[in-house]
UniProtKB/TrEMBL annotation:
PROSITE patterns with a match to the protein in the record: DIHYDROOROTASE_1, DIHYDROOROTASE_2
Cofactor note: Binds 2 Zn(2+) ions per subunit.
Recorded metabolic or biological pathway in which this protein acts: Pyrimidine metabolism; UMP biosynthesis via de novo pathway; (S)-dihydroorotate from bicarbonate: step 3/3
Domain Amidohydrolase: 342-420
Single annotated GO MF: zinc ion binding
Descriptive protein name: Dihydroorotase
Length: 428
């Protein structure tokens, strides 16, 4: 494989951008930082001061294959990811069939060889068919390549079942990623129980729906010693419980999604594109998530990219399915609205999209060190553009951010030493 030298890029160090060249060969980083002489037989990419970072890692993506190919496929979802600067994504198992056995997960891993533009990892479900009763064979699923275990889309309703799952996942050396939702506490709610729901006559979802399972599961993780990761955290109480559990030494981590970091229930509109699970919460919740992002309580940012058909999302807040897309807008939205507004540093944001998730799942990606996979992104931090969902590579156009103007654009994406996105043109 060809050698590539990227000249005159810049990396984020504290509040500064420092000049960096990077040399890659055979799909790996050979050296990074400082100046590298232009001698030898390699392709040179002139970065012209663009920001260089490890390719982004998103540990929470819905690719919808098999079973819901009209919403997304391995191909369209990984193309969307490559547009967003991602080089590694983990796909959720709420598909049909569901990867709860070696055969289904094996087929998905195989199909990625032809269909995926970037690295894809697959979660196994925790229970057979995500039905919440019979546990999968955790060891066998890990041997078949599962990156973790989740029943995402649903919470595990019984404490005893989660306890047993943690015991077995721990024995197998795996990690549970939990969608926290106590269904007995829903009472028909579909948006946050807050000001917007009250004013507009909608049924609310209490924060407790999420917090009760976070309390229960952190207690179970403390008892069992299992690796436990909280998906799409949305409440201030949840952040505080995670902070306390970490202080006790439990092996617990958490992720937050761009929409929960940027929007509140008062941003809701009467359209399905503002409906997701967990729902947009209050401004105190949003502030607590940002605090968690800054102080290290929250370990990574994950989009929870959840594409749906346009007609499904036309059914309004009450009747449309939960979920919004996120892969193609995450970095520009967060850079524009958190970094440029002084809420979070660029270095911290990048950490949460690279090394943070890499550490949670024990990956070799996510760093710019010699020997690491050459998964890289170059970003133009000055370019200003307006989000237009019609231009998405994703089949899902369901975003509340349509029409938002953002600063920064993903310019080049290299995955395993191969250029997969150059100036928005995808390769492969
Ligand atoms: N987040 C969502 O609102 N929807 C997800 C399921 C999930 O992540 O819980 C989906 O599969 O559409
Ligand atoms: Zn979920
Ligand atoms: Zn999800």
């Amino acid at each position: 494989m060809a050698k590539i030298l990227i000249k005159n890029a810049r990396t984020a160090k504290g509040d500064e951008l420092v000049k960096a060249d990077i040399l890659i060969e055979d799909g790996l980083i050979v050296s990074a930082g400082g100046e590298i002489a232009e001698e030898g037989d390699f392709e040179v990419i002139e970065a012209k001061g663009k920001l260089l970072a490890p390719g982004f890692i998103d540990v929470h993506v819905h690719l919808r294959e098999p079973g819901f190919e009209y919403k997304e496929t391995l191909r369209t979802g990984t193309r969307a990811a490559a547009m967003g600067g991602y080089t590694t994504i983990f796909a959720m198992p709420n598909t049909n069939p569901c990867p709860d056995n070696e055969e289904v997960i094996g087929k998905l891993i195989d199909k990625c060889r032809t269909d995926a533009l970037i690295n894809v990892g697959f979660y196994s479900s925790i229970t057979k068919g995500e039905k919440g009763s019979e546990l999968v064979d955790f060891r066998a699923m890990m041997e078949a390549g599962a990156v973790g275990f989740t029943d995402d889309g649903k919470g595990i309703q019984e404490a005893g079942l989660m306890y047993e799952a943690m015991e077995r996942v721990n024995e197998a050396g795996g990690i549970i990623a939990a969608h926290c939702e106590d269904e007995s506490m829903l009472f028909g709610g579909y948006v946050h129980e807050g000001e917007y729901a009250r004013k507009n006559g909608h049924k609310g979802i209490m924060s407790l729906v999420e917090d009760l399972q976070i309390m229960r599961d952190t207690a179970l993780a403390e008892k069992t010693g299992a690796r436990y990761h909280i998906c799409h955290m949305s409440t201030k109480e949840g952040v505080e419980i995670l902070r306390r559990s970490k202080a006790k030494g439990a092996r617990v981590t958490g992720e937050a999604s761009p929409h929960h970091l940027l929007l509140t229930d008062m941003d809701l509109k009467e359209h399905g594109n503002w409906k997701m699970n967990p729902p947009l919460r209050s401004s105190e919740d949003r502030k607590a998530l940002i605090k968690g992002v800054k102080d290290g309580t929250i370990d990574c940012i994950a989009t929870d990219h959840a594409p749906h058909g346009a007609e499904e999302k036309e059914r309004g807040l009450e009747k449309s399915p939960f979920g919004i897309v996120g892969l193609e807008t995450a970095f520009p939205l967060l850079y524009t609205n958190l970094v440029l507004k002084g809420e979070v540093t660029l270095e911290r944001l990048l950490y949460l999209m690279t090394e943070g998730p890499s550490k949670v799942f024990g990956l070799k990606q996510g760093v710019l060190s010699p020997g690491a996979p050459a998964d890289l992104v170059l970003i133009d931090l000055e370019d200003e553009w307006t989000i237009d969902s019609e231009k998405f590579e994703s089949k899902g156009k369901n975003t509340p951010f349509d029409g938002w103007t953002v600063t920064s654009r993903i310019d080049t994406v290299i995955c395993g030493g191969k250029i997969v996105n150059i100036g928005g043109n995808l390769n492969g």
